[in-house]
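Got a spare moment? Tell me how you read both lines of this record:
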Amino acid sequence: SRNSLVELKAGFKRPDPPQVGGGCQGGKKRRVTPGGLMCERSISLQENNPCTGASRKKPSFVRSHSENELSIMKSCQLKEEVEDILPDSSRLYVLPTFASGSKHPSLRSINCGTLADLIMGRHKNNVESFRIVDVRYKFEYDGGHIRGAENWQHGEDDQFLSAFLPSAPLPAPPQYCLENTEKRNILIFHCEFSSQRGPDFYMKLRERDRQLNKDVYPGLHYPECYLLHLGYKEFFKNFPDLCTGNYTEMIDPRHENDLRKMRAKSKSWSGGTVARTGRMGRLHL
């Protein structure tokens, strides 16, 4: 009935309005905003705990990185900021170099004059040792080669890589230090024109070196490798006295049968190897 409804309402006690400090600080009333209790709850979550005084803040999360990830990020930054830095981001190239062009943009080249200076000992204060890797076919090499060069050919990939690289990786990534005066051990690759076979072997070694040292990136056993610009043909033309023998072209008609045999032995050169080298040449290796 209407009377009972009135009696029920009369017995209902209105709750006290929210207080500052939720009751721990007595007496003071909080001004209620038009947003009501939802606004009240939003405000209270941002305040200090009224009883303990502890601050209730939003937790902040920071992404953690492994040592290898940090080393990779640092190396990438150095390669962007420091011109002529080695691929292991430790220091600069010791020889005057230039990029090998659009076909092999990640490879560093030296001209025949720089190699001649190296052979004649004009870089002995900075270079501990150097190896000249001639990857022409055997009949080309036998016909004439740069003094001290060693011959490796397609089809000998495993022997070549085993002869140059140890089985164990480096113990740790190298440290960036421009003041490092330790002498270098460098490699120079070439073929007849240094346009295909030389770059291919250069990249084979670098690829295996990267795989071996993947956990200590950007560490490399051979960070300082060079390609002889324009190959043996250009070197023999300018420095025949630093060569043993003469210059035998790959397409020399006297060695037609030898060329056919060598090409059959190195099918990878005219197939997947060239494609892989072109793809890797676009990477900063």
In short: Residues 1-9, 20-30, 32-48, 268-284 have pLDDT under 50 and may be disordered. The longest strand covers residues 127-134. DSSP finds ten helices and eight strands in the chain.
